[in-house]
Amino acid sequence: MHILSKSTYIKGEQCEKALYLFKNRPFLRDKLSMEQRAKFKRGTDVGILAQQLFPGGINMTPSSPSQFSKKAVETLNNLTNPAVNVMYEAVFQYDDTLIMLDIIVREGDKWRAIEVKSSLSLSPTYMKDAALQYYVLKGCNVPLSDIQLMYINSDYVKNGDLDLSQLFVFQSVKDYAEQYQDVIAKNITHFKDIIKQPHSPKIPIGNQCDTPYRCEFHGHCWKNVPNETNRPYTIDYKTLYELIGNRNSSTAYLNLLFYRPAVPLFDGDKPYTEFIIAFSILSNNGNFDKIYNWDCLEDLSKWKDCLDILTEQLAGFERVICFAPQNIAASFQKLNLLDSKELNYKILNLKDILQQSDFRHENTKSDFSLQNVYECVFPDKKLFEHSRIILNALSDNVMERNLITNDLEQENIALRDIYKKVINI
Ligand code: SF4
Questions:
Q1: What does CATH list as the number for 4-221?
Q2: Does 194 sit in the ligand 1 pocket, CB within 6 Å?
Q3: Of 91, 97, 100, whose CA–CA distance to 135 is shortest?
Q4: Binding site membership of 23 for ligand 1 (Cβ less than 6 Å)
Q5: How far is the CA of 100 from the centre of ligand 1 (A)?
Q6: Which residue's alpha carbon is at the smallest distance from atom 1 of ligand 1?
Q7: Most buried of 135, 301, 353, 400 (most Cβ within 10 A)?
Q8: 203 Cβ below 6 A of ligand 1
Q9: How far apart, in whole angstroms, are the C-alpha atoms of residue 184 and residue 95?
């Protein structure tokens, strides 16, 4: 039975207390956020696609945690079986540490180890992951030709069927991993000692709680920190009013759902090309709210229809207010939306405006999201995580997909309410 795994080892590098709590008090973990679930799903989808580049492999994924040791024995047996040339999720165990390797491929009398990443570049954390895998593989006496990270080629342009040999790029991390072996051996010994201690290590909260990942024991460790979240927000009204301009202009609130698939869907697209898959527009018509919703979730190839519909629906407004992490005007420019003669509105990104106006509140320090801003401005109300919309939009379940219309509307109403409350109209 193993004591450490790749994820617990990485946890130990981030914070020894997080490692201790995970092994001894796992019930203290925070709930998995929607954003983490969305990231996890993206990684899984790309991993399955990557396997197609090495077809005919045996999937070694254990059906339950109790099967890990059995699968580790089977993996070693397969290495010496000439009928096996590729394994997915192969299980290796050494020095009480268990790893699952995305892909391992026979190359002559050696094996090439491959770890798949759904990103466009490699981070130091990915390199360390691979160094740990190399340590375990070497400990299991696997004859390795190389250990590589396989990730997405940012220059790939789809043209017809997906060309997996062009979509992915490989980088050897063997030399890096070699240099890191002594450190890993020492860390593993140290981490095993930590886990056996009767009490969790006394580590104060700090930067490590969010770097490189948000720690899942945040709720537990930060619960005694004096609660500043009940204090009202502060803002520089002079700057705010300058940035807002004429408050009596005719206004539409726009909530756009962008999609950036790791794997390009349409010809001419690169990985992570951004396009619009749904939107909601809220305006006021006399005493009534007017709402217009659109999406192409049942057929993403129809996404360009949104350009004409947006043009038509937004014509006549003097300003369009949204809340987005990206530069919406630049996104519209790319989609040729702003060149349309019918449009003469000004786009205001309330997120930028609030940040430039020095909007401050404890809740928005780590994440300036619509949800957090809304809950600062209306402390007695709650809004859902935006990632819920992304997860539902990409769900295979039609009922979950149908939920996004209402959620986009609710976010748009929250945006309108923030705007009106903050600028006091
Ligand atoms: S919240 Fe911070 S101090 Fe607590 S376990 Fe996580 S990283 Fe360590």
A1: 3.90.320
A2: no
A3: 97
A4: no
A5: 26
A6: 218
A7: 135
A8: yes
A9: 11
Q: Is the Cβ atom of 19 under 6 angstroms away from ligand 1?
A: no
What would the two tokens of residue 238 be? 């002079």
Token representation of residue 338: 């702003």
Question: By C-alpha distance, which of 71, 124, 121 is closest to 98?
Answer: 71
Ligand 1 mean position, distance from CA 22 (Å): 11
Distance CA 401, CA 399 (A): 5
Q: Is 74 within 8 Å of 60 (Cβ atoms)?
A: yes
* Cβ neighbours around 161 below 10 Å, total: 6
17 CB less than 6 Å from ligand 1? Answer: yes
What is the CA(371)–ligand 1 centre distance, in A? Answer: 24
Partners of 8 in the beta sheet? none
Asked whether 117 lines ligand 1 (CB < 6 A), one says: no
- Start and end residues for every CATH 3.90.320 domain found in the chain: 4-221
* Ligand 1 neighbour 218 (Cβ under 6 A): yes
CATH 3.30.420.10 residue window(s) in the chain: 237-423
- The CATH number, out of the four listed (3.30.200.20, 3.40.50.300, 3.30.420.10, 3.40.50.1980), of the domain defined by the range 237-423: 3.30.420.10
Amino acid at 405: T
Q: How far is residue 294's CA from residue 312's CA, in Å, rounded to a whole number?
A: 13
How does pLDDT run along the chain (425 residues), one tens digit per residue? 789 999 999 999 999 999 999 999 999 998 766 566 666 666 678 999 999 999 999 999 999 988 999 999 999 999 999 999 999 999 999 999 999 999 999 999 999 999 999 999 999 889 999 999 999 999 999 999 999 999 999 999 999 999 999 999 999 999 999 999 999 999 999 999 999 999 999 999 888 988 888 899 988 988 877 666 678 899 999 999 999 888 788 899 999 999 888 999 999 999 999 889 999 999 987 778 899 999 999 999 999 999 889 988 988 888 899 999 888 877 877 777 766 555 567 889 999 999 999 999 888 877 899 999 999 999 999 999 888 898 899 888 899 999 999 999 999 999 999 999 998 76
